[in-house]
Amino acid sequence: MKKALDLPAVSLYKRVLQEVLENRPSGTRLRLAEVLGKNRSFISQISNPAYNVPIPARHVERIFEVCHFSPAQRAQFLEAYAQAHPGRMPASVQEPRVREIQLTVPDLHHAERNRHLEDLLADVAIRIARLFEDD
């Protein structure tokens, strides 16, 4: 028998995702849809607290990668997700394996362009790393 969803907790983690997406470049929703193999309407459904469509656990890690959650946003999201879906968190989400590197790039003298460049470089690094995951 399926457990009932905790709808207030679902809307909580969706609010966190919605907030993150609102502070990302305009192409982030489309890029997220492409990475998840879904269409943009799916992204609208999973990021809108008004819809009861839950986010599948298998997509959470990719959402974190593409949307670049801050540590506080990630913790807030995971807390609400665990409350909404007890026992359904994938191990890779519970213990992220990442390393931070420093890269020197030119300053584009525009905050939004600088952030967009950082997001693009982080996305490229994640995609390259996936090529080596099975080696």
How would you characterize the overall build of this protein?
- By secondary structure, the protein is mostly helical.
- It has a domain at 7-97: Orthogonal Bundle (434 Repressor (Amino-terminal Domain)).
- The protein is built from seven helices and no strands.
- The chain has helices at 7-22, 28-36, 40-47, 57-67, 71-84, 91-94, 111-132.
- The longest helix has 22 residues, at 111-132.
- It is globular.
- The model has no long low-confidence stretch (mean pLDDT 84).
**Which range does the strand content fall in?**
under 5%
**Form type:** globular
Which structural class should the secondary elements be placed in?
Answer: mainly alpha
Low-confidence stretches: none
Biggest beta sheet attributes: none
CATH class of the domain at 7-97: Mainly Alpha
What does this entry show, briefly?
The chain contains seven helices and no strands. It is mainly alpha-helical and 135 residues long. The longest helix is centred in the C-terminal third of the chain and has 22 residues, at 111-132.
SSE order and pairing:
Layout (H helix, E strand, L loop, with lengths): L6 H16 L5 H9 L3 H8 L9 H11 L3 H14 L6 H4 L16 H22 L3
Helix pairs in contact: 1-5, 2-3, 2-4
